[in-house]
Specification:
globular, 12 strands, 6-stranded mixed beta sheet, Pept_M16_N, metal ion binding, 18 helices, mitochondrion, protease, mitochondrial processing peptidase
Length: 486
């Protein structure tokens, strides 16, 4: 019996060894058939055409799809008071037909290739991008160039889009965070291009004409302000060849030099406030900002670490009150708010460092003086950053920042966005490895030095909407910016 069992085990062993040898013979070296290799340390390549048009790519040989898009160094900041809203209006009209394609043909081409075409406008950039299979990249670039250079801008389409944009504006006005931040920009950069909204005022939307749109294109859609970005499976040289074919005829620079130079004037940050009291609203929504840093500033990443130390907290998300942020623990334990968020918003030459607090009307927070308490202790936390920051909270903030930056680069569209924004704003791209190295070198001393220069005793801009009776006088809030800790 034992010998039969031994023989059976031996046969099984021999069959297993034979199977393994057969697999080795077929797969040498042994590879994972369904796994996708990951490329580490991918580099960003860039080329500039003779007319100043730039091409920037990050090639991933194993990717089956690509995102290609055009980043333009022009947004609502490139407008005037009269034409505010033009950049966003153009974005809406881009997909309504060109000299070569009707709106239906445009939509069918994208749909038939299984692609995705989109656009957006910000205060400083306008972006048109497409995601497709690698084999469809030439068609995608053709469509993008057609949209940018040959849009019909038909009067009927312009009239239709007025109503669409006005409805969009109504929806944005219902989003309190958007409203508060638009007012914050308006007061911090009052009377200046950066203070205008992206959608523009209602009266502009109702009166913008084709001539305004054509003039905006002629002034701002120039080669020296445009970057064609590719991320994914598209090789750099292929995109360069496509750019030569489709974008080499774009004018190198604007004929209206005075208009473009006025756009580049550094805005002044104005210590000021705007308050819209409405006791019918269930919350008080308050944003306080000091002048921040630009994308190019050497303190850019230090500002992000400082912002991460202040942190974010939201009662509705079930967040623990004992997060690493000292302010989150204090706000939670004393029932000062439903949530708060901190932001470091950067532009090409300035920025805003902001704590934003939607103050909830929970039963325990009916006392209107809670609004002032929340603002007071938030600014005390800002003061603390100038005097006492620990190594532990700095390391926590750095880890959170590195994780958020790296996780945000998930997918070809996110990578293209990162490349486009950096190239069009700063002229070069800081890769993930370099970002990790720079952030890793920041110390608690760097944070305190930054806070002393940028937070301590600095003018503030305040935007407040809702039940804000308890928000005390501007001078009282400004005085808290230099209060010594007891």
């Amino acid at each position: 019996m034992a010998s039969r069992r031994l023989a059976l085990n031996l046969q099984t062993s021999l069959r297993s060894r034979a199977a393994i040898n057969a697999v080795k013979a077929r797969q040498s070296p042994l590879t994972r058939g369904l796994a996708t290799p990951v490329s580490h340390g991918a580099t960003t390549e860039s080329t500039t055409l003779s007319n100043g048009f730039t091409i920037a790519t990050e090639h991933s040989p194993w990717a089956q799809t690509s995102t290609v898009g055009v980043w333009i160094d022009a947004g609502s900041r490139a407008e005037t008071d009269k034409t505010n809203g033009t950049a966003h209006f153009l974005e809406h009209l881009a997909f309504k037909g060109t000299q070569k394609r009707t709106q239906q043909q445009l939509e069918l081409e994208i749909e038939n290739m299984g692609g995705h075409l989109n656009a957006y406008t910000s205060r400083e950039n306008t972006v048109y991008y497409a995601k497709s299979f690698n084999s469809d990249v030439p068609a995608a670039v053709d469509i993008l160039s057609d949209i940018l250079q040959n849009s019909k801008l038909e009067p009927q389409a312009i009239e239709r889009e007025r109503d669409v944009i006005l409805r969009e504006q109504e929806e944005v006005d219902k989003q309190l965070e958007e409203v508060v931040f638009d007012h914050l920009h308006a007061t911090a950069f009052q009377g200046q291009p950066l203070g205008r909204t992206i959608l523009g005022p209602k009266e502009n939307i109702e009166t913008i004409q084709r001539a305004d749109l054509e003039n905006y294109i002629k002034t701002n859609y120039t080669a020296n302000r445009m970057v064609l970005v590719g991320a994914g499976g598209v090789p750099h040289q292929q995109l360069v060849d496509l750019a030569e074919k489709y974008f080499s005829g774009i004018p190198a620079e604007s004929p209206n030099y005075s208009a473009t130079s006025a756009q580049k004037a550094k805005p002044d940050f104005v210590g000021s406030e705007v308050r819209i009291r409405d006791d019918t609203m269930p919350t008080a929504n308050i944003a306080i900002a000091v002048e921040g840093v630009s994308w190019n500033d050497e303190d850019y990443f230090t500002a992000l670490v400082t912002q991460a130390i202040v942190g974010n907290w939201d009662r509705a998300m079930g967040n623990s009150p004992y997060l690493g942020s000292k302010l989150s623990t204090f706000v939670s334990q004393n029932n000062l708010a439903n949530s708060f968020m901190s932001f470091s918003t950067s532009y090409s030459d300035t920025g805003m460092l902001t704590p934003y607090q939607p103050l909830g009307h929970l039963p325990r927070i009916l006392d209107p003086t809670r609004v002032d308490d929340l603002v007071h202790f938030t600014l005390r936390e800002w003061s603390r950053l100038s005097l006492s920051v620990t190594a532990a909270e700095t390391e926590r903030a750095k880890a959170q920042l590195k994780a958020s930056i790296l996780l945000s680069l998930d997918g070809t569209t996110a990578v293209a966005e990162d490349i486009g924004r950096q190239i069009v704003t700063t002229g070069r791209r800081l890769g993930p490895e370099e970002v990790e190295r720079v952030v890793g070198a920041i110390t608690e001393k760097d944070v305190m030095d930054f806070a002393k220069r940028k937070l301590w005793d600095r003018d503030v801009a305040i935007s407040a909407v809702g039940q804000i009776e308890g928000l005390l006088d501007y001078n009282r809030v400004r005085g808290d910016m230099s209060r010594m800790l007891s």
